Automatic annotation (TrEMBL):
<keyword id="KW-0808">Transferase</keyword>
<dbReference type="InterPro" id="IPR029063">
    <property type="entry name" value="SAM-dependent_MTases_sf"/>
</dbReference>
<dbReference type="InterPro" id="IPR041698">
    <property type="entry name" value="Methyltransf_25"/>
</dbReference>
<dbReference type="GO" id="GO:0032259">
    <property type="term" value="P:methylation"/>
</dbReference>
<dbReference type="InterPro" id="IPR050508">
    <property type="entry name" value="Methyltransf_Superfamily"/>
</dbReference>
<protein>
    <submittedName>
        <fullName>Class I SAM-dependent methyltransferase</fullName>
    </submittedName>
</protein>
<dbReference type="GO" id="GO:0008168">
    <property type="term" value="F:methyltransferase activity"/>
</dbReference>
<keyword id="KW-0489">Methyltransferase</keyword>
<dbReference type="Pfam" id="PF13649">
    <property type="entry name" value="Methyltransf_25"/>
</dbReference>
<feature type="domain" description="Methyltransferase">
    <location>
        <begin position="60"/>
        <end position="154"/>
    </location>
</feature>
Length: 241
């Protein structure tokens, strides 16, 4: 499915009936051949935006998966880059990647809701496409964890896409997907948390501010604007006070 190297429909079904962690362990060898991997143009746009305000010393890719965000950090960090993820399978694939000389890269298996790092260990944290795996009630704890591992003045950065309008097919596709996942989780254990419409900018901004961040938005001009003039993609920049 998706490409000759990608997972079959059966493999995706098995993943969806597993826990989030075990599901990604199963998907890991073929993950980079699915649409779930963050697209290269988005990674490049974030890297370019960070380069305008960097360089940074130590960076963390939160929920790093197979390491796409680590590659972004390696472009803008001088000393060290760390990827953290709770899936051993995804980390195993990430470690196989060939990366050019640059900052020291390390991989850590851990839960983003209980980060295994010292206070103030990083001056930059990024994340790509992971927030649908957290329920709204988990965001305060998640953002508090990120705040704790950042140095004063450190940045928590992630891209966010403008939500599709109700008149678009994408809106109804995502609504249908979330509905199917809610039914699945009501009937099957363990749950598989993956909700595309649960991560709303207004809620996210409020929770980041409660966690102690100053929150700004930066347009990523590479993706243009919608017909109403609003940006298609923005970058949330949360600065630890």
């Amino acid at each position: 499915m998706f490409s000759p190297e990608g997972p079959s429909l059966r493999e995706l079904a098995v993943q969806a009936l597993s826990s989030v962690e075990h599901g990604y362990d199963l998907l890991a060898p073929k993950f980079d051949h699915t649409p779930f991997r963050t697209p290269g143009p988005l990674l490049d746009a974030v890297a370019s935006a960070l380069a305008r305000t960097g360089p940074f010393d130590a960076g963390l890719d939160l929920c790093c998966g197979t390491g796409a965000g680590v590659d972004v950090l390696a472009r803008v960090c001088r000393q060290s880059v760390t990827g953290v993820d709770f899936s051993a399978g995804m980390l195993a694939v990430a470690q196989q990647g060939v990366r050019p000389a640059g900052p020291t890269v390390s991989w850590v298996q851990g839960d983003a809701r209980a980060l295994p790092f010292a206070s103030g260990a990083f001056d930059l944290v990024v994340s790509f496409g992971a927030f649908g795996h957290f329920l709204p009630g988990e965001l305060p704890g998640l953002f508090a964890q990120v705040h704790s591992v950042l140095r004063p003045g450190g940045r928590f950065v992630f891209p966010i896409l403008a939500p599709p309008r109700p008149s678009s097919p994408a809106f109804w596709m995502l609504l249908g997907f979330d509905a199917v996942m809610r039914v699945r989780n009501a009937l099957w254990r363990p749950p598989f948390v993956m909700y595309y419409r649960a991560f709303r900018l207004g809620d996210v901004r409020r929770e980041l501010e409660w966690a102690g961040f100053r929150v700004g938005l930066e347009e990523l001009p590479e993706f243009g604007r919608r017909s109403d003039g609003s940006p298609r993609v923005r970058m949330v920049v949360a600065v630890r006070s």
